[in-house]
Write a sequence for this structure.
């Protein structure tokens, strides 16, 4: 099956363009156009601009999910996550419905962008390609041949964070009905957070403990400022080493004891240099390593109680249910926030249960970016810079680690 896709014509007569491309790269079985066509034109192949169609075994849908080839005018939110392809613009994106997102090809309009294929929430490989309008001077067409899915060993998109591509259905149901031993046997070469993954970005690692390790957060939300008494970003992640780790941080097992101890050590150091330490954990059954963020916030920016008040509201708005520490569920899906106040000895704490199948993995980062009024740093992918991060990790090891006693 040979298919041609064209960007938005915006009034351009696409007849000669299709003729030329069809002669050069075709013959095509059909052509999909990402926009409207003016006038009555003749084409050498069937041309579709809307609706739902079948070409052989492939289904094509404009604006609908549950098809093999999907066409939308906007981009789905966060499609650029974990892509090495640079994207130097921010776009108006739509809230994607992950429960039916299983297309093999997804075409959208915008600047030209083709990210690496990834495994979608239904366990199939997706290629996302954005095409420019025809008159833009940028790439406006894409020709490809497909008979359906060919391979599925691509990395999984961090919408899910798990490499369980053949178990997509189970993830959708939000159930984990297999015994742990079977789950642990799965290869974890492509898990973004397993230390055993040869492609893990080791330059970010600051410390490795017995059951957890500490990294600089890739594309950290905050950067060091010369007027502050902290020579590093300080935005860290404490990540359980085990691929299937304990999710309730309040549980008293060695793994959580180590994480809690290290959080306290780092937080006391941040406090000693006039920063609140904001610690957050999002634990959900779609996340394999429920890591803890630690973010230093200078006390001149906001009070610790101001941060707590902000999250009290936004967490409720997100549909999280506040629970007391005593009644904190022994539960997969929860969000915990602790703010170590540097102006008192107080530790402010919030606990929420989450009764949702799908959550925004960036919940903490987006809210902190809003609190700090640095919305331009919401996307970690846009903030990522290996040279800056390597220097920051080295500074942390040299200047801060000697002052902290970690397990
Ligand atoms: Zn893992």
């Amino acid at each position: 099956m040979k298919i041609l896709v064209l960007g938005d014509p915006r009034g351009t007569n696409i007849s000669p363009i299709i003729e030329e491309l069809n002669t050069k790269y075709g013959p095509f079985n059909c052509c999909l156009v990402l926009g409207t066509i003016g006038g009555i034109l003749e084409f050498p192949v069937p041309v579709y601009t809307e609706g739902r169609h079948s070409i052989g075994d492939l289904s094509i849908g404009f604006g609908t999910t549950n098809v093999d080839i999907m066409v939308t005018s906007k981009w789905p939110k966060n499609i650029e996550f974990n892509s090495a392809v640079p994207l130097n613009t921010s776009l108006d994106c739509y809230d994607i419905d992950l429960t039916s997102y299983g297309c093999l090809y997804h075409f959208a309009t915008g600047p030209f962008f083709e990210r690496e294929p990834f495994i979608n929430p239904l366990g199939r490989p997706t290629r996302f390609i954005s095409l420019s309008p025809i008159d833009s001077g940028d790439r406006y067409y894409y020709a490809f041949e497909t008979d359906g899915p060919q391979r599925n060993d691509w990395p999984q998109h961090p919408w899910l964070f798990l490499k369980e591509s053949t178990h997509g259905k189970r993830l959708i149901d939000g159930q984990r009905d297999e015994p742990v031993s079977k789950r642990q046997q799965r290869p974890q070469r492509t898990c973004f957070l397993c230390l055993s993954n040869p492609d893990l970005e080791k330059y970010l690692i600051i410390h490795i403990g017995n059951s957890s390790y500490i990294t600089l957060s890739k594309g950290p939300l905050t950067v060091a400022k010369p007027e502050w008494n902290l020579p590093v970003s300080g935005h860290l992640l404490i990540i359980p080493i085990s691929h299937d780790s304990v999710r309730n941080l309040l549980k008293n097992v060695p793994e959580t004891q180590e994480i809690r101890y290290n959080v306290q050590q780092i937080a006391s150091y941040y406090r000693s240099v006039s920063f609140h330490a904001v610690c957050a954990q999002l634990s959900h059954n779609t996340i394999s390593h429920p890591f803890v963020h630690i973010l230093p916030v200078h006390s001149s920016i906001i009070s610790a109680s101001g941060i707590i008040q902000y999250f009290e509201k936004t967490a409720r708005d997100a549909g999280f249910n506040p629970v007391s520490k005593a009644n904190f569920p022994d539960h997969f899906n929860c969000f915990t926030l602790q703010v170590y106040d540097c102006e008192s000895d107080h530790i402010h704490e919030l606990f929420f249960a989450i009764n949702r199948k799908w959550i925004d993995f960036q919940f903490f980062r987006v809210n902190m970016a809003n609190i700090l009024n640095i919305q331009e740093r919401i996307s970690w992918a846009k903030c990522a810079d290996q040279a800056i991060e390597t220097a920051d990790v080295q500074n942390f090891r040299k200047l801060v680690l000697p002052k902290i006693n970690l397990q």
In short: The chain has two domains: 2-145, 202-403. Residues 65 and 388 are 40 Å apart (CA to CA). Confidence is low (pLDDT under 50) at residues 161-187.
